[in-house]
Write a structure and sequence with these properties.
- The complex is a heterodimer of chains A (119) and B (115).
- With 119 residues, chain A is mostly beta strands.
- Chain A has no helices and twelve strands.
- Chain A is globular, with a radius of gyration of 14 Å.
- The mean pLDDT of chain A is 93.
- Chain B is mostly beta strands and 115 residues long.
- Chain B is 0% helix and 52% strand.
- Chain B is built from no helices and eleven strands.
- Chain B has strands spanning 5-7, 10-13, 19-24, 31-38, 42-50, 53-57, 64-68, 74-78, 87-94, 105-106, 110-114.
- In chain B, strand 5 (42-50) and strand 6 (53-57) form a beta hairpin.
- Chain B is globular, with a radius of gyration of 14 Å.
- The model of chain B has no long low-confidence stretch (mean pLDDT 93).
- Classes of the chains: A mainly beta (119), B mainly beta (115).
- Chain A binds chain B through residues 33, 35, 37, 42-47, 50, 52, 91, 95, 98, 101-112, and chain B through 31-33, 35, 42-45, 47-50, 55-56, 58, 88, 90, 92, 94, 98, 101-109.
């Protein structure tokens, strides 16, 4: 079974600074997707960034970027120029590429990291 | 385009009762997944429906069931409620096609409290 581990229950950062959230995962699959989701206090889960396992290039979305190390099964999220609105719970998630059966619709989440942004 | 909607947003039940939660996906989305979120267990996958068929199921007891209608709206039902069923229940819908990274769009959730 696939597992996702976020070893940092809480992180904090000063506004305008950079912070990196860690995520490791375990899988025997070679084709899969990795995601970072943000869940603000309002509870609506929002996709921040995604990475396809077969792509070596790290994904980037504006101030958000990832460091994807497939051999090490590591997928960290870097937030640059942190803003007050970045404060939220961040979840790392794994999804097997669609191959039927147990891959359908199932995201496996880490335990989450609470990010606090100080003004 | 309207997002995923879930009703009701808050629900209080007592042990032994049953409850039905509803999820309306984004228009055009045919896949709906359900998750349970608790402080202790985190986010856990319940099941996924596509075109009225359950294609995948997580490790939850048979008290947890679901269905999907022809308009892709989905309901989940929990029978004989237990205190441990208190949680935020999230549903997510996905657009059709392999090329969309199977991205899931989440609803705001239903907060269920079992007394």
């Amino acid at each position: 079974a696939q597992t996702v581990t976020q070893s940092q229950p809480e992180m904090s950062v000063q506004e305008a600074e950079t912070v990196t959230l860690s995520c490791t995962y375990d899988t025997s699959e070679s084709d899969y997707y990795l995601f970072w989701y943000k869940q603000p206090p309002s509870r609506q889960m929002i996709l921040v960034i995604r990475q396809e396992a077969y792509k070596q290039q790290n994904a980037t979305e504006n101030r958000f970027s990832v460091n994807f190390q497939k051999a090490a099964k590591s997928f960290s999220l870097k937030i640059s120029d942190s803003q007050l609105g970045d404060a939220a719970m961040y979840f790392c998630a794994y999804k097997m590429a669609n191959a039927g059966g147990t891959s359908y619709g199932k995201l496996t989440f880490g335990q989450g990291t609470i990010l606090t942004v100080h003004p | 385009k309207a997002g995923v909607t879930q009703t009701p947003r808050y629900l209080i039940k007592t042990r032994g009762q049953q409850v039905t939660l509803s999820c309306s996906p984004i228009s055009g989305h045919r896949s709906v997944s359900w998750y349970q979120q608790t402080p202790g267990q985190g986010l856990q996958f319940l099941f996924e429906y596509f075109s009225e068929t359950q294609r995948n199921k997580g490790n939850f007891p048979g008290r947890f069931s679901g269905r999907q209608f022809s308009n892709s709206r989905s309901e989940m039902n929990v029978s004989t409620l237990e205190l441990g069923d208190s949680a935020l229940y999230l549903c997510a819908s996905s657009p059709p096609g392999q090329g969309m990274y199977n991205e899931q769009f989440f609803g705001p959730g239903t907060r269920l409290t079992v007394l």
